[in-house]
Every structure is written in C-alpha cells, then in structure tokens.
Automatic annotation (TrEMBL), chain A:
It comes from Streptomyces rubrogriseus. It comes from the Bacteria. One of its GO terms (cellular component) is gas vesicle. Residues 1-21 are annotated as: Disordered. This is Gas vesicle protein.
Amino acid sequence: MTDLDHRYPGQETEPYGPPSGSLADLLERVLDKGIVIAGDIKIDLLDIELLTIRLRLFIASVDTAKKAGIDWWETDPALSSRAARDALAEENARLRERLDALEGAAGETTGAVR
Amino acid sequence: MSASAAGPAAPALVCAFAVTRTPPDPAGLAAARGHEEGGALRVLRAGDLCLVVQDVPAALFGEEALTERLNRPEDLERCARAHHRGVEAAAGRGPVVPLPMATLYRGDRTAELAVAARRPVLDTLLARLRDRTEWAVKVHASEAAPEAPADAGTRAGPGSGGRAYLSRASARRRERQGAHGRALAEAEAVDAALRSHAVAATRHRPQSERLTGRRDPQLLNVAYLVEDARRADFTAALARFTADRPLPGVRVEASGPWIPYSFARWDEDPRPAPDQETPS
C-alpha cells in the first residue's frame, strides 16, 4: 500500500494494524452508518441519496453481511428511511381525508355531529 | 449536471468518498485508486469544502447492479477496500469526514449541493476530528464462557447504549459469579483504563464467533477517538493489556490508527451521546 498519508503511518511505529487489514473492522466502519436524513434540505437530493439508503437496506437483507457477523441493522430502529415515513404520512393524510369525507357523509345520513 | 469524464458515452454516476477542508496533494490523488472500474479520483468544491469523488459506470454502480454485486462476499470486500482507499486518499493533509460506502450521486452538481446543505454538521465534525485518530479495540474472554457464546452479543442490541449494556452485564454478574461475569468485569476495566486516554469512545456490536473465527466470545468491541498528542499514552496503556496481560480472564486486541470513521457520521448530530464523551 502506498503511504500517501503521513497522518496514518500504519505500522512503522505502531505494533497495531494494519488498520484496513481486518475486513470485519473495515465493514463495520464503512457500513455502520445511519440513514441519511436530509430533513432540512429543500432541493431534491433525497431521491438520489435514497440510492444509498435502499442499497444499505438491500445489504441488510443479504446473507453476505450476516455471514460476516455484521447484523446491526436487524434490530436497528433507525433503519426506517425518511422516505418510508413520508410515504406513511402521505397515506395517513389521504386516509384522514377519506375518513373525514366518510364521516361527513355518515353525519348527513344519521344527523350525528362530530 | 456536468458531463462526466468516464468512458465514451458510458453513463456514469459520481461516487463520493470523503469531505475535507484540506485538498489532497494532486500527485497523491493521481497515484491513488478508488474503485477499479471507475475513473481517476478528483476533487469537487463546495465553498471551502472539498469532496473527493470518482466517476463510476452506472452499469456497475446503479442500484440493481450494486445490490447484486454486494451480495457476493468477494465484491463486497473489494468495494469496501476501494472505498477505504478513496477515503485515505482524501485524508493526506488534514481531517476528513468519510461518507458511507456507496454514496452515489447523479452528477457533480448534486454532490456539491449535498455537501453545501450539510455545511454546519461537516464543519463541526472536521473540527472535532482534527489531529485525532481512531483505535479499534476488541476484548475477548480467555476461555469459552459456559453460556451460549452469542449471548453477549445478541443481548446488547443497537440502540442500547454502553450504559444499558453495562447495567445488564452487572445484573448478570450479580446473578452468577462465574468466569463469564469476571471476564466482563475485566473487559470493563480495560475499557475504563483506555477511555481515560481518549477523547471519546463508541461501541460497535461485538462480532460473532463466525466472524472472528474464535471460540472465545467477544465481550467488547470499542472504538476510541484519540488525540494525537496523547497517542503515546493511549498506546502504552493498550500495550499493557495486549502484551503484559495483567487481567487473566480476557485477551485484548487492537488495530489502528484508523481514520476516525466511527466518530464521523455526517448524517446525525455530531454531538456525542452523554455516555460517549469522556472529559479529557
């Protein structure tokens, strides 16, 4: 490995390492990231970053990582993407509208006022 | 969207590796390689922040293709190592915030906007990571514990912080004063000693026996963020545990110095959890 990086000198002075030698340690670090939340971003970045998010969820579903013992997502409540929440919120709003409409209609027929 | 410099008319995506404020040395960047299937590493600018990226063929890095490839262990490894090379190339002259593996954008402009939009978090992280490295430390029990080896791992689910884990560990110790309990206590002692030389610590899930290839269960899998000025103290403390083995019930292993991945999550509030940061 070329030593481009004077700040991470590897093994000359350290008895530990090489830092990237262990695949498990590396995967733990490059995959162990939460979901990107672009909460306050108005521009349309989200669908692009969803690529990464969905990808992580796909990785989560495969045997590979499980075999590697990397199974942090299985019980990680953070693994609900914003997109899924948005979809839920949208559906919720639509259902409320329908409910209101239905209740309105019901109210008209029964005279009940809510 | 700017046109990409990938092969002739090959649709390309932009693969992002890391953000830094110190642009890497051009010669070093030219010598480094990211994904073998992609183009040269290059730097995008978003104000005074730099994003190290690479054009990669959409045919291989589109969602479906990538998902399929990452299902294959050898490709997963190649991808992870390529990502790490890209992150290392970005870290030549100063602190970096590594991005998650396979962070892909449809073009330069979008990637720049993504960085610009996260400016405050990135600033905070870059300041926090300056002149600091990460050390990975694993503590194993010296002998197979009498209970199911997976126990220590599965009970410490994510979302349960170090405190929750420790309190469960203490409860178990009270239940049964066995070898496993003693080993856990020793692991905690190791953690406490190392923490005193670190700026922060964060726990990864203990790795399974399948992964470590060992029968003795992994009790602790901790990442420490260490100030360069205190590195000698930290490694000396570490050497006491790895070489001198003053605690008979545990075996301690370490790797480092790492670029501080575990402390560089750009997608969340960089202020550490209350039980994470230790006063230096």
